[in-house]
Every structure is written in structure tokens, then in C-alpha cells.
Amino acid sequence: MSTDPIPADATTPVSTTAEAAGTDAQDASQVANAWLQRYAQAAAAGEAAGVAELFEEEGFWRDLVAMTWNLHTAEGRSQIRDMLAEVGPGAWPRDIDVTSAETADGVTTVMFTYLNDTFTGKGIARLRDGSCWTFLSSAQELVAHPEPKGRRRILGAEHGANNMSPENWLDRRIKRQEGFGIDEQPYVLVVGGGQGGIGLGARLRRLGVPALIIDKHPRPGDQWRNRYHSLCLHDPVWYDHMPYLPFPDDWPVFSPKDKIADWLESYVKVMELDYWSSTEAKSATYDEESGTWTVTVTRDGEDRILKPTHLVLATGMSGIPNLPDVPGADRFRGDIHHSSKHPGGAKYRGKKAVVVGSNNSAHDICGDLWENGADVTMLQRSSTHIVKSDSLMTHTLGPLYSEDAVEAGIYHDTADLIFASIPYRILADFQRPAFDAIRQQDKEFYEALEKAGFMLDFGADDSGLFLKYLRRASGYYIDIGASDLVARGEIKLVSPAVVAELTETGVKLEDGQELEADVVVFATGYGSMNGWAAQLIDQDVADRVGKCWGLGSDTPKDPGPWEGELRNMWKPTQVENLWFHGGNLHQSRHYSRYLSLQLKARLEGIDTPVYALAESHHIE
Amino acid sequence: MSTDPIPADATTPVSTTAEAAGTDAQDASQVANAWLQRYAQAAAAGEAAGVAELFEEEGFWRDLVAMTWNLHTAEGRSQIRDMLAEVGPGAWPRDIDVTSAETADGVTTVMFTYLNDTFTGKGIARLRDGSCWTFLSSAQELVAHPEPKGRRRILGAEHGANNMSPENWLDRRIKRQEGFGIDEQPYVLVVGGGQGGIGLGARLRRLGVPALIIDKHPRPGDQWRNRYHSLCLHDPVWYDHMPYLPFPDDWPVFSPKDKIADWLESYVKVMELDYWSSTEAKSATYDEESGTWTVTVTRDGEDRILKPTHLVLATGMSGIPNLPDVPGADRFRGDIHHSSKHPGGAKYRGKKAVVVGSNNSAHDICGDLWENGADVTMLQRSSTHIVKSDSLMTHTLGPLYSEDAVEAGIYHDTADLIFASIPYRILADFQRPAFDAIRQQDKEFYEALEKAGFMLDFGADDSGLFLKYLRRASGYYIDIGASDLVARGEIKLVSPAVVAELTETGVKLEDGQELEADVVVFATGYGSMNGWAAQLIDQDVADRVGKCWGLGSDTPKDPGPWEGELRNMWKPTQVENLWFHGGNLHQSRHYSRYLSLQLKARLEGIDTPVYALAESHHIE
After folding, report:
1. How far is Cα B394 from Cα A574, in angstroms, rounded to an integer?
2. For residue A333, with 0-12 CB atoms within 10 Å meaning exposed, 13-18 middle and 19 or more buried, which class applies?
3. Averaged over B143-159, what is the pLDDT?
4. Among A147, A163, A251, beta carbon nearest to B250
5. Largest CA distance in chain A
6. Nearest by CB: A156 against B164, B252, B485
7. Are the beta carbons of A266 and B271 separated by less than 8 Å?
8. C-alpha to C-alpha distance for A474 and A5, rounded to whole angstroms
């Protein structure tokens, strides 16, 4: 959870400065209106081909649920035409209302609100030379079921003697929360109550979807509390807001782990989420005929059967821990565990520790062990992308998630949409310049690491952190200090290192080197999220879902074919009524909107024809 | 706490509509600039008389801490001149920056930010015929100690191996909270952890003032939880926000009591307040030489000595309960209690209840008892001002605290300031038209009540609820349904009624009438807040403080002399380092800013010469 990377500076040509004032702004507005007028004419005629003609030959239309009941990017004019034809004109944006238009580097970026038959939406288009380069349509609210906020908020009390109910708010709250599986079935069961499950739960609650979140820990936020002592979020505050209830304006830039844990616990309470702590899902089966799941959960030691219609796995985008099968593990006399089970460095004061791996967890744990006075050796197996937290803040986050952005009127919801408006196919081109700049700026830092023997990379195509995160969710470290320790030799490094076997007293490498160890930590990553489905449901269902995460970029650990969206995340899968939710704080916040709308529509019996449901891909 | 009345429609001539667009807006801006230019010239010359000349002969200058280190209203040109002369030009507003100017009914209302030697401030002036009618100056932040928000927020984590501390956020948090009285003394001790103490605590925490809040209940929010079952706030959501962390935008209009309790409990946690539950203050003495209090508190049964510099009583603006000494109370066989001890109506199902009084608590309790199937009789002793909650919302709250206001860009902080900008001396004139309209609109409602024998009033000068609240904090009921029950005879009424004595089985009135009763509830109000000081410190200190609350209007229960501010509230008293905090949610929120700034300035050793410290008035 501390490994969330962040979008890059170059993600948006939307100027946040005053440059675009005066005539420039007028020009941008004219460009926007001219194109939108042509769009309106073509759309009114109901001609998919006519609308597609307004796009560049290689243009993009990304749709977030509004049109496709899917997360889908149509790439190129013909895919756009096919998509529009299939979904029909009722789903196309109409009544477009421009909220901003700015031109920079020959690209006019237009932000707007709109309507279609089903949704109110928000969109962003990038225009150049009279054509549309990228178009984003996103569902905001169901027209028939708007959010009960502002003027639509509930009264809370039906004042008046004739409306007195024998049950008050608390009675109803307890009855609802405790009665799931007995009095009522949750329409949605969310397995996993970290920030992902909680944020989704808040959206479902607002939409009036009966949802229960279950989590194995005793208290919401324990997912953070149980982590290592000195941990603070690696992402800054502007990136970390939960839906609906932003942090107060003096919240620290980097939340300490127990502080964010307390926030999440309070969030569950004040957002009135139905949340069962100390509850584990033991098994789940789906009955196609009734269209419901049967899920056995154990709550505080007692079994209960739940029959939700939809099952959402929000157990962490890191799937099941990869613990390699190393010869000799049974004879090693010390502790062995996966990074996810690291008990904190205090246990190993004065001891010898070997950490296998060189990504985020490996660095975090090495730092923690060093801080606690252990003798630490990191074994690097392959090259790692390192980027300093400060540099990320300066070069990549600034325009979207920062005090600058806030002062320019770009709050996180808008930032999320701007970031989403860049099709994944071209995202690397937007990101690369920022990471080139970081590489230049932090030259000495990188040289020191290389001098210490550390193998560095900047991603398969030098596109940096965020692409690596989207493609494989591994292979990087956001540096908050451990890299200095590596460079200075405080954390010892063996690189490259291949573990051959464990001995009674330590680790033997393939080159014959032997390292004494009291503890060996395997920071060797995680499987795909569909592993959770295998564990909870069965392998067949997991296989039908296929790999979760990754774009299909055909770069290391992200095998093709190209999908253009994150596989199986926040959208319908090949398994009916099974959903995957997760990602970093920004993604969980943003995509929980679309997942909650998909679920609400199904609850309300709205027709939800999924366009271009993705195939499953088993490749590990 | 459910009795908070609300400001009236007519409180502000600031137009929230688009009327004032175009040339009107330009005119308003010109009027504002012309006057401000004259002000700037006179102020630059340092001539108090010159500045005072810019005011109407009967003009007002209200200052909230910024200039006077007091809450003080100078009434008329000569008082304004004297005040300006005494505080000196360094305290006068300069660098005034107009944020809005609008003209309505010949009055131009100007809102602005400004600076003086000590504070950044906000102000509101009303101009007519070239002169200033009312002027508000308010302290916002200390120039030398701005709030650590936005760009000034703390980093939270000192990332980097060299900054690793053995203590994390949680360690420090626990150490600080638990160590008060042992490792460290709180600079401020806040007695009472309801919304008043909590809101003040949040402001002090943000300003870096070591403050401890103590409360006798087991959990924050219990002050609400323990009240009657069906209670919801009588004030709507826009009025009820706490400092810094507004409710989400789907919060119910009227918060159920347990929901607001949960919010307060979460607020204490996420705002990192130092709060001791289950803690009672037993005694307090002040040592003038050292300038510190010695306060003995019992926490979970254990005594601890605290030595704060400042003591804030935030135990509720209702002081100690008034329980009249009725003959025969000892022989009455049923239950007798004050309204504040009402255990909830469920205990009295099928029983006979007599409630003495006809204000808010009496109505609430009668409604609760009726709801629970008791046979209820209300004894009205004198006339009561009744106003329907809905009518208050429509006629009085709308322009400042409503969805309309929010959509017009008037959030609660701005609304608070606008309301504060009307000097108390002329507030009745602003309020009367709204209550005249209510009286007209709800004619049938009032007629039905009178037909049932209920004695009505609209305040001493027909100025309605808010003035009654400010003058005496009693004598009214915000109707949320119980009045209908009275009108329909579901709640029986005896009016006028004077209790002569209690018998073994009931209540005997002076007119000879006897009422059977299983329970008698005395909804007979509360004493002044200085009663808390008598209880905790001693009677001498309570007398030196004198009466709290009330303006000195010489209307019933608000004896003169005229003070022009609420006596002893949120401002220095005649007793050094003793403060009173409270009021409804709006007042607690708004005035906690000024109280926290006064305390912060003292902590930092800033000179705080109090202008026009009010005399004490003992009159009960």
C-alpha cells in the first residue's frame, strides 16, 4: 500500500497557469465550440461514421462506463465508429456544456459536462488541427438515480408528531448492520476493508446499494497499523483523499500509518458503512440460476452464510504472496517469511538479516531492519527503477496533485479525470519527459547507487514509474531514504544475486557466496489478484477471470495481447457478478465511482449491455 | 443543545441574487472604494477623530479581538474615536482588499480582508449616504503565527535515513495525551468536551497551543447519546459544521443525535485532540503569583493534578439546573427530576406525567413521553415564543445557512461573519420583519395553540427567537411537532399554572386544581454559566465574573446595564486566565476562533492589552 506511484507532469497539456488568458482563451473557446458544433451535427444525425470522421485517424475515445458499461478505449477511427454504432446514439454525449478550454502546444483541451440517455457525464477532449485526438466520456451520476446530496440530501428527522417512529437512527443502523445474512442479504459483498473496499463502500452507500464490507482485522485501518513502525504514506496528501470527505487542510503531506488508519476507521463510522471486522470469507460459490453467490464467512469465530448478488474482491491489488520454493528452507534454523509477514525490525536488533529482492517492500524492510540495528544485506535479482519521492512530487505530481493545483482550482476529482483522459496507449509518451528530467536532476544520486553496485532501470521504454506500476505493479522503489543507505553501504548489497539454497545458518548464492542470516525475508512480490478468486472460489473461476492488472504491453511481466485498460479491474469480467477492486489511493477513489455505478444500475434493473467485454488471459 | 436558534433573514442586506450585476455592481464598487480611500487617508494620518468622522453619528464599530483583544462594540462616533485613539493606529485595519461590494436598499455592503500590526483580518462595512453605518473588524490569523495549513502544512514524515526517529506519530501522540500533569502541563485546560470544547480544542491544536479537554462522559458525543431517543438536531446541517472539517454533502438536514455523537467522537480522533474521557474536574484554585491554576481532576477514578495557565469552562451555556424548592417534594411518592435528568419516556409508558414549564426542554420531554404512551400534562407558567422549525429555515436561515447560500458561494464561515457584522444594538430591527412574516404565514398554527389555551409571545419587542436566545437563552420552543400535540390536546395543557405544592400522589396548583402524577419533570431552566465557576472554584470567583450571557437589554431576564456583547463569553473576564466558551453550534464554531487566538497570543507572549474590559454584573 505504500508503493503507489503517481502520474507524471507531462500527463496533461491543460495549462494551470495564467498564460492562456485573454485572446488565447478566446481562441481555445472558438476551437472547442467549432469542433463541438460539428460533433453535435453528426451526433444529431445519428451517424457513427460521421462522428468518427471528426477524429484523427489514430485518435482515441476512452469511455468510463457512460457508453459501454465497461472501461474501454477505442483506438483509431474505425474502432471509434464501431463502438458508437454498437452502443447507439442514445448513449452518445449530448447537451455538452464546456467548463474550460485551453490551448497549449497546438493542442486545445476542452473540459465539459454532458448528458446521455442514462447518465450525466463529464468529459475531456483534446483537439488539434480541427480533429479530435483524444476523447474521454465518463459516467458521473445515473439520471434516474442522482446522488442524494446538496438539495437532495435526506431530511434525517421527520419532524412532526405524526411521523414519530419507534426506531431511531441508531436502532436502524444496528439492525441493518447486524442483520445481514439473517434479515436481509447484502446486494454487494465487498471482501477486504482497506481503503479500496471502504471507498467503494462509501460510494455504494451513497447510491443506496445494500453493501457489506468484511475484513479479517479487528479494526478498520489495521491494514496500516500492522505495518512497520516508521511507515508514512509515500504519496502526498493531495493524492490520498477518500471519496466525499477530503482531509482537513492542515493534514500532513505524508500521513503517518497510524494516522491514516485512524482516519479510515473514523471514515467507516461517519459514512455509516456496514462493515464487519474480524470477519473472514471462507468459501464462495455462484449459482447461475438464481444469480447469487453463497459466501460462508466467519465473524468473531462464528459462521454465517451470506447470499449477495455481487461479489467484489478488494483484498489488495497485490495478490497472493510469491514465496519461492528454495532448497534447504526446511533445514534453515532462523526465521523465513515473505515481506508481507515482516513483523517489524525490533525483533531483529543486533541480528543478521538477508532480504531477497530490491523493490519497494525490500527497501522498506531493509530500512526498518537497519533502523532497528540489524545487520542487513539486500540481494538484488534484477534491475530496479528508483525515483526519489521529492522528485516525483516536483516533476510528476505538481500540476495535478499539489498545493499549486489546488490554488489553480484543480482538486483531486478534476485531477483524476484529467489523468484518466490520457489513453494508456500514449501514456508513456506523456510520462517520459518527466522521468528524463528526474534522471538529469538526480544524476549524482543515481551514480552513487550504481557505484554501490545497484542495477538501475527506468522501465522498458524509459517511461518511468507509473507505467511500470500499470504494466506490472512491481520493479520500482519510491525512495524515502533507503537508497542512501544502500549507496553508503549501511545496507549491504549483493547484485546480481541468485539464491541457490538455504543452509542451516544462512543463504548460499549461485556464485558460491555464503551469507550468514538469522532471518531471511523474501520480498519477492505477489501473484495476480485472480489468485484471491482461486483461494475463495476455485481455480476454474480464477482461470476464467484470467490475469488481473497489466495493460498487455508486451513488456516484462505484462504479456500481451494489448488490452488498453487494466485487465479485469473495476469492470465486468468473464465471470458473472464477480468484480475486482483495488489500486492505489488515487485509483481506488476514482474507479470506485464507475464500479459503484455499474452495481447500482444492476440493482435498479437498468439494462447494462457490456460493450467489448475483454477476453481472459491466463498468462502469469 | 437542541435549542439553538438561528439568525434571521433580515440579518443581512448582502444580496445573494444576481440583481446587483452590471452597473449596480460597479456603483457598489465605486461607493466602497470612495469611502475606503477616505478611510485610508484618515488612517494614514493616524487621526482617530478623522476616522470616526467617516462614521454616522450613531454608527457602530464591532471588533472581534483584532483591535481590542476583546469582543467589543463601540457605539456612536465618540466611542469609536475613543477606541481608535486608545488602541492606536497600529491596530487599525490597513491594506484593505475588497472581496465584494453590493448595494441594496441604499446600503452598500463591503466585504474585505485586511492587515494590522498583529493580525490578518476580515471585515464587513455597511455604507450609506457616504458614511459608514456599521463596521466589523475580525482577527483571522496572527501574522507571526499563521495556521499551518495549505502550503504551510507539516510534512508528517521526514523521509530520509538521517531523519529516522525512534518514536513514530503514534508513540508521540500517546505520550503527549497521557503525559499531561506528569511530563507536561497543558497551557489550556478546557473543562467540558461537548461540541463547544471540542471545536475550541481543534482550533487550539491547529495553533500549537498545548490544550487538554476533559469530560465526565465515557466517550466524546455521549452528551448527545444520553439524550432522549427520538432527538434530532433542531438546527439544519448548514448551521452545524465544526471548524476545519465540514460534513460531507449528503449529511442529513437534521442530524440524529447518535449520528452527531459519532461525528464528534471521530472528530476528536482525526483532529488529534488531547481529550480525557471519564474525567471530572473536582476543584480549581488560581495562584496569582505564578499565574497558573491548580486543578484536581479524577480520571477513571484516579486523581491527577493539572497546572494549566488558562482555564476554559465549556460545560454548556446552560449553567446549573434550576430546581425550584416546592413544598411537599419530600412526600411525593413518584419520581421528581429536572429536565436535564430526564431518563427518556420509555420508563413512563402508561404512567401519568406532569411537566412543569413550556419552553424547549418541556416540549421535547412532553413529546417524548407522549410518544412512549404516557399521559402527559404540561404546566405553562408564562408566555412562550413558539416558531416552527420549517418557518425558521425558510424565513430566517435561508440567505446565510442553506443550499441557496452555498450555491451563492456563502459557506458557513462567511455566513458567520455576515451575521456577526450586525451590532447587537440594532439586531432586533433586522430580525423583526422575518418574525412578522412568520406570524402571518403560520397564523392558523398560532390560532390553534391559543385556542388550546397556550400563551404565546414573540419576545419583548416582537423581535423573535434569536434575540430571546441572546438576551436570556430561554422562553422559546423551536417546534418540531410537539406544538401540534398541544393544540390537539394530546399533550394536556394547564395555563397559566402555578405549582403550590406536591402531594403524595401529584401536583397541587395555586388555583386548587390537583393533578395526579407518577413523575414530575421540572423543565425550569438553568442558572448562569458562572455557577460552574462557583462549583469548581468558589463563590467569590463566580461573583467576580458575574452573570454570563445576555446583552443587558433590560428586557425580562436580561437586566441592564447595556453591554452590547454577550457578557463574559469568549472574552477576558474580571478573573484573570478564566474563560467561558459555549453557545449553539454556530456560535461555538465562530467564536472559538477568537478565543483560540487570544490564548495563542498569550502563549506566545504577545502583548494583549484588553480595551474596555467589561464590568461584572451579579444580577441573577
Report:
1. 53
2. exposed
3. 90
4. A147
5. 85
6. B252
7. no
8. 10
Closest C-alpha among B306, B213, B279, B272 to residue B592: B213
Buried b (16+ CB within 10 A) or exposed e, A586-613: bbbbbbbbbbbbbbbbbbeeeebeebbe
pTM of this structure = 0.94
Distance CA A470, CA A297 (A): 32
Residue A507 pairs in a beta bridge with: A502, A515
Which residues neighbour A194 within 8 Å (Cβ) at sequence distance 6 or greater?
A1, A215, A223, A264, A314, A316
Cα separation, B386 vs B390, in Å, equals: 12
Q: Round the average pLDDT of chain A to a whole number and report it.
A: 93
Q: Could you tell me which of A170, A167, A157 has the C-alpha nearest to residue B481?
A: A157
Number of C-beta neighbours around residue B148 at 10 A: 15
Q: How confident is the model at residue B84 (pLDDT cuts 50, 70, 90)?
A: very high
pLDDT tens track for A271-307: 999 999 999 999 999 999 999 999 999 998 999 999 9
CA angle A34, A37, A42 (to 5 degrees): 130
Q: Half-sphere exposure of A442 toward its Cβ, with a 13 Å CA cutoff?
A: 24
> Sign of the C-alpha dihedral, residues B268, B274, B280, B284?
negative
With 0-12 / 13-18 / 19 or more C-beta atoms within 10 angstroms meaning exposed / middle / buried, residue A426 is middle
Q: Does A4 score more than 90 pLDDT?
A: no
Residues B62 and B423: beta-carbon distance below 8 Å: yes
Residue pair B108/B95 in contact by the 8 Å Cβ criterion: no
- Tell me the backbone φ, ψ of residue A509, rounded to 5 degrees: -95, 165
Kindly tell me if the per-residue pLDDT of A201 is higher than 80: yes
d(CA A253, CA A313): 30
Residue B115's DSSP bridge partners are: B94, B120
Cis bond before residue B399 (omega within 30° of 0): no
- Sort out which chain B residues have CB atoms less than 8 A from A271's CB and list them: 248
CB contact at 8 A, A189 and A579: no
The mean pLDDT of B54-65, rounded to a whole number, is 98
| C-alpha closest to that of B173 among A364, A194, A262 | A262
Return the axis-axis angle of helices B169-179 and A257-270, rounded to nearest 10°: 70
Query: Exposure pattern of B129-144 as b/e (b: 16+ CB <10 Å)?
Result: eebbbbbbbbbbbbee
CA B610/CA B596 separation, integer angstroms? 15
Bridging pattern class, strands B211-214 and B188-191: parallel
Task: Say how far residue B248 (Cα) sits from the centre of its chain.
Answer: 23
**Is the pLDDT at A2 greater than 70, yes or no?**
no
Q: Which three cell numbers stand for residue A247?
A: 482531509
Interface test with A, best of B147, B159, B488 (most A CBs within 10 A): B159
Is A481 close to B262, i.e. CB distance below 8 A? Answer: no
B242 contacts in chain A (CB < 8 Å): none
d(CA A178, CA A306): 12
What values do phi and psi take at A362, rounded to 5? -60, -45
Evaluate whether B245 touches B264 at the Cβ level (below 8 Å): no
CB neighbour list of residue A76: distance below 8 Å, 6 or more residues apart = A57, A58, A59, A60
Cα B499 to Cα B512: distance, rounded to the nearest angstrom: 10
Contact of B252 with B237, CB cutoff 8 Å: yes
Q: What are the tens digits of pLDDT across the range A361-384?
A: 999 999 989 988 999 999 999 999
Whether residue A7 is predicted with pLDDT greater than 60 in this model: the reply is: no
C-alpha cell, B337? 427530576
Q: Please tell me whether the interface predicted TM-score (ipTM) of this complex is above 0.90.
A: yes
Write out chain A residues lying below 8 Å of B252, CB-based: 153-157
- Map grid coordinates 543452509 to a residue: A503
With pLDDT > 90 as the criterion, what percentage of chain A qualifies? 85
CA atoms within 13 A on the CB side of A21: 3
Cell of B377: 400534562
